């Protein structure tokens, strides 16, 4: 008697707040490799709702977005037990962003997994 192999749905989620497109693409790639995670996006105005809905293990944003309301973003990450990852995107290529994000996302995922 054989049973079918079930493929678990990904429960690891990363949210990118405020783009831009290269940051979103690099985060999608790095999250998939580092944690088999799926990506959700949010704008600054709906970030709290998206993060509360998906409860990601990491929230990624550019330094510029973070500067918009740093205290609120820190509190949001703390509320859902996520790691807040700030990235300097000035003059960064998609490949450089991926290389920067991969270890940070892997570490954030391991941190969350250890708590569950």
Please give a structural write-up:
- Strands 2-1-3-4 form a 4-stranded parallel β-sheet, with helices on both faces.
- The protein has one domain: Rossmann fold (3-Layer(aba) Sandwich).
- The chain starts with 12 loop residues before the first strand and ends with a helix.
- The protein is an alpha/beta fold and 116 residues long.
- The protein is globular.
- Helix 1 (21-35) packs across helix 5 (94-115).
- Helix content is 53%, strand content 17%.
- It is built from 5 helices and 4 strands; from the N terminus they run βαβαβααβα.
What topology does this entry show?
Blueprint: E1 13-17, H1 21-35, E2 38-42, H2 47-54, E3 58-62, H3 63-68, H4 70-79, E4 83-87, H5 94-115
Summarize the entry for a quick read:
The chain is α/β, with parallel strands linked by helices and 116 residues long.
CATH class reads Alpha Beta
Structure summary, number of beta strands: 4
Average pLDDT, rounded to a whole number, is 91
Query: Widest sheet: strand order?
Result: 2-1-3-4
Please tag this protein with its features.
116 residues, alpha/beta, Rossmann fold, globular, four-stranded parallel sheet, 4 strands
